[in-house]
Amino acid sequence: MDWRRIGFFLVALSILVLTACPFRSLREGDAPTRLPPEGYQSLARFPFHEAWYGIYFDDDKIGYSHFKIDQHKTSFVIAFDSVVRLRIGAQTKEIDLKESVHVRPDLSLASFDSLVIMDKKQMEMHGVVKGSRLEVEIAVGGETIKRDYEVATTLYHSSAVSLMPALRGIRDGQTYSFLTFNAQKQQLEKVEQTISRMTGVPGPNKSVWKVRTVCGDAVLHSWLNEQGLPVIDKAAKEPIITFLEDETSAKNFLRRKKQG
After folding, report:
1. For residue 56, what are the domain limits?
2. In this prediction, what percent of the chain has a pLDDT beyond 90?
3. Per the structure, how many domains does the chain have?
């Protein structure tokens, strides 16, 4: 299996679905009507815990993703799973991605586990932050590779990208910069975000904020509503879009996939 062959899509997928993070509230009636200007400051104050998203390529639905945040005493686990069907030449590949990311209330990374399955072959990855180092172990085809990364500043997982504006606050012209580990690309990347207030009437799905995220060579545009909820994410260089959907719509896609 040549994992580099699917790398371009996994990178796009990681940016889109990991930045379309878990903003569907389990208790929407208790959620504030607007995101506080100073942000929620801690995951413990987030009113959003779970979300389902549809993934579209050239207007065709190719998969779905699902996020859920659970609190474990003083830390949090961001769990993610997705199923994608992608045509590569004359073949259709199914890609399953599962991740479990342990973070602190400020979203800083503690550890993560990642599993990618394609054509019944899999790649597993485990990472843990120890002091100023990130230790990563990758298992592919019966072989294990160990890598260490020197970390000079606070490190975040790529799953924290879309949560950062809500955590730190949203203001017109606000910018954020932070370091992430991209499990699909197996490298550290600097993320830069720029927030702008939309003028005139609200945009799609009542969006009032737009966030431009640059992560490596990937550029993502996100539209957020007044609660900081991403309602649409669009890749700048690829015809890939994610839309917030309900669980039923996502599971219907899964049933159609099995029937096909």
Report:
1. 3-259
2. 33
3. 1
